[in-house]
Amino acid sequence: MGYLTLQKSQKFLASSRQVHKTAAHVVARRAPEETVTSSFASFIHAVRPEHLSKTVCHRSKRMILDSLGVGLVGSTTPVFDIALQYCRLYSSVAVSSVYGKPGVKLSPTLAAFTNGVATHSMDFDDTWHPATHPSGAVLPALLAASQMLPPSAKPNGMDFLLAFNVGLEVQGRLMHFSTEAHNIPKRFHPPSVVGTMGSAAATAKLLSLSMAQCTHALGIAASLAGAPMANAATQAKPLHIGNATRLGFEAALLAARGMEANPFILDDIPGCSGFSAFYTTYHPKPLSTPSDRHEFLLEKQDIAFKRFPAHLGMHWVADAALSVRNLFINYAGSFSPSLIRTIVLKIPVSKYINRPFPSSEHQARHSFQFNACTALLDGEVGLSSFMESSIHRPELRELLDKVVVEHPEDNVANFDKMYGEVALLLHSGDVLTGKCDTFYGHWRKPLSKESLLKKFRSNASHVLPEEKVETIITMVDDLENLSDSSQLACSL
Fold first, then answer.
1. How far apart are CA 342 and CA 418, in angstroms?
2. Strand ranges for 246-402 from DSSP E
3. How many whole angstroms from its chain centre is CA 88?
4. Which end of the chain has fewer CB atoms at under 10 Å, N or C?
5. b/e map 276-306, b = 16+ CB within 10 Å
6. Mutual orientation of helices 237-256 and 211-222 as an angle, nearest 10°?
7. Residue of 140, 151, 137, 254 lying closest to 196 (CA atoms)
């Protein structure tokens, strides 16, 4: 979409939103001939704010707050600077805010891209099961879109919250269509696949696209999705989130302007792959409409929030390492690495996060060995753990040299079933063991309100003054009553 015609597009989208806001809210029960794809489009178009339960609203607002904080601290990273410099090459109508840069505006889709990169720049963003990072692929697009629309068509906070949950729901449903998706990925990075679809669905909802336009938005998004896992642990990985949120946004804008795509994109049609191209197993099911008493996936399963900026799997080994470290201090009086002969890590098989000697911050964020040894050495893992000076410490290297990895058969590469175990084999012959089945922050053991607020304040305060930090907290907490959701984007 060319942004030299942005004002015309704003008027078009505004009229589209107004027409569909005044449409009847009664949704017909699914016709027998309805396809999987049309059922998704029907859900996106038909779902209303009253279908969000208190639990879903509460959990999704926690996700929004955490994602904003992660994006704000992510705006301090080198990879964010590269993305921002790239986006500023383009001459366009700059109306959308950039995380942590109050004086900078970009065109809506480039702002979404840049903020998506910020969100995943430290691998600090939320994680769901099946494995994906749902918020970062959706929230930046909605923030940018809310600022794109003219004053007469600004979505309110409840519109925003509903669109956000539509984006989450589409991602979650698509992930459940594949048994392959339930395990730690090997081929495609999940948010680059389902995140693009979620962004398209969320933006289509915020812009009040018709059911036919929602269908085409999903089809267009499928042609823009996908990134290989080989770029994990590199500066290219944050681009996966940036592209997901930007390209899904663009898919919705293209559909709004009349572009069409395959109306069966989510269906499993033999001999002609649609969305099934991304998975070796794919068994899609229709998505029930709200009249069928739809229950959001977020109602059934909470989200995982990270306490430190690294791949989710690292949180199991870090907590196991902290546990055995306490045992060691009780045993020896202090942590003395010279007493340790071998460090045994019992972890699931996952090649891209089994990195014995990481040499960069992004490799370190994806290394079981590094995070276990950092927790042992320092008694914590935090932002500073991934600085160059921390990664290349001689004392850390000495611990890494002692690590041996084992892969027990019962430790599967699945975020709902895996565990982390760290055993210290001492020169004395004694063995100390720490094990973690569920780390603090996992959906089975959610962060408390106090812990989540502490994380947000710590992250946001890197780039915003205290009064702005507190304003954002208040705004998100009362999001459903916000008259103009673009105020949230403007506060960043």
1. 23
2. 340-346
3. 25
4. N
5. bebbeebebebbebeeeeeebbbeeebbbbb
6. 150
7. 137
- With a pLDDT cut of 70, the percent of the chain lying above it is 93
For residues 374 and 381, the answer to whether their CB atoms sit within 8 Å is yes
User: Starting at the edge strand that comes first in sequence, how are the strands of the sheet with 340-346 ordered?
Assistant: 403-406, 340-346, 420-426, 431-436
Query: Which two structure tokens, joined as six digits, stand for 341?
Result: 């002969």
- 175/134 Cα distance (integer angstroms): 11
**Does the structure show a pLDDT above 60 at 31?**
no
DSSP annotation string for 219-242: HHHHTT---BGGGTTSTTHHHHHH
Are the CB atoms for 100 and 81 separated by under 8 Å?
no
In angstroms, the CA 17 to CA 21 distance is 6
Q: Is 351 exposed, middle or buried (0-12, 13-18, 19+ CB in 10 A)?
A: exposed
The DSSP result for 305-333, as a single string, is --SSSS-TTHHHHHHHHHHHHHHHHHHHS
pTM higher than 0.85, yes or no?
Answer: yes
What digits encode the pLDDT tens for the residues 182-233? 888 888 999 999 999 999 999 999 999 999 999 999 999 999 999 999 999 9
- The 10s digit of each residue's pLDDT in 269-313 is 888 889 999 998 999 999 988 876 678 999 999 999 999 999 999
